[in-house]
Specification:
single chain; about 325 residues; alpha+beta; Beta Polymerase, domain 2; 3 domains; 5-stranded mixed beta sheet; 12 helices; 8 strands; about 50% helix; globular
């Protein structure tokens, strides 16, 4: 195995480390000739100083080394770990070869308008730990409409199609109809075909409302929040906003002080953190839509680049 790069990662890279933070390393390696020729290239080699399932302490060290092939795949997918590594500053680099410099020179070819892995992570965390009151209100609006109808027994077995024009409209509520596909009624991201009965729709909305309503109440009291996960979501959305605005991600992050406070649970989730997270995600969405970056990664370019890197390694024994 030949190391292409090894760097400090995680909170030490972002600038959110505390005296209790463990040390993370990430890296990339060139597989051996045998692994390349036999098609047995490992995705990742991991090492940990601790054993068992206990939480890491400040004295623990984690190290993940990705094969060049897998790293390129992660970067082409827009995975946060690979993108962060590409923008890591020199002071975080422990070891590197000239191949890493060559990959970093080409990093802009990994950036697209649809960094789905970045934004997808943010949306997942935002939905998991908090939700806009307007989305709960949308679900309640649909539930109230169905409840009113349910008092009239004639409507109990009606499908959405039979009530299509009477169904509520509004924020987070719309209809989707494409040629060749069954129309769907979309409420808070939940898609229900118009062949479904209104009682089925009510059940979907009720479970949604009860689940997120409970989380919203906990968030109001700053309880039940996975602060580390929320801080990661906020960090990722901030990084992506900077990437679309300036074409760069600077580490340590300018917002590291605030992000550290969020990670430690020192901010009010409902009144402060959730609105900032939601606002940043919406800003990123707008920036991505108006970005001049390509729609997707040019895979032919990166396949040719990978072939170039590996060929030179096989011919010379190093890149």
């Amino acid at each position: 195995m030949q190391t292409i790069v090894k760097m400090k990662f995680g909170s030490h890279l972002y600038g959110t480390n505390t005296p209790e933070s463990d040390l993370d390393y990430k890296g990339v390696f060139m597989p051996t000739r045998e692994e390349i020729y036999l098609g047995k290239i490992p995705k990742c080699l991991s090492e940990q100083t601790k054993s068992g399932t206990e939480k890491n302490t400040k004295d623990d060290i984690d190290s993940d080394m990705y094969s060049l092939h897998h790293f390129i795949k992660l970067a082409c997918e827009g995975q946060t770990v690979a993108i962060d590594m590409l923008f890591a500053p020199p002071e975080m680099i422990v070891e590197k070869s000239k191949l890493w410099d060559e990959i970093v020179k080409r990093k802009q070819f990994f950036i697209t308008r649809n960094m789905t892995a970045f934004l997808g992570y943010c949306r997942t965390q935002a939905a998991k730990y908090g939700i806009k009151g307007s989305r709960l209100a949308a679900a309640k609006k649909v539930m109230d409409f169905i409840s009113t109808l349910s008092h009239q027994l004639i409507y109990r077995d009606y499908t959405l199609k039979e009530l299509w024009e009477r169904l509520p409209d509004g924020e987070h509520i719309h209809r989707e109809s494409e040629e060749g596909r069954i129309p769907v009624y979309v409420v808070c991201g939940k898609k229900i075909q118009w062949t479904a009965k209104i009682t089925y729709l009510y059940g979907i909305m009720e479970r949604f409302y009860e689940s997120y309503g409970a989380r919203a109440k906990l968030a109001e009291k700053n309880l039940g929040i996975d602060w580390k996960a929320v801080s990661h979501a906020l960090r990722v959305s901030i990084e992506l906003k900077e990437l679309y605005t300036s074409g760069d991600i600077r580490f340590p992050l300018f917002e590291r002080g605030y992000l550290t406070a969020v990670k430690l649970g020192l901010k009010n989730y409902k009144k402060e953190v959730a609105p900032i997270l939601e606002k940043t995600i919406e800003e990123v969405k707008t920036l991505s839509e108006t970005s001049t970056y390509p729609e997707k990664v040019n895979m032919k370019y990166w396949n040719n680049s990978l072939l170039e890197f590996v060929s030179e390694f096989i011919e010379k024994g190093e890149y």
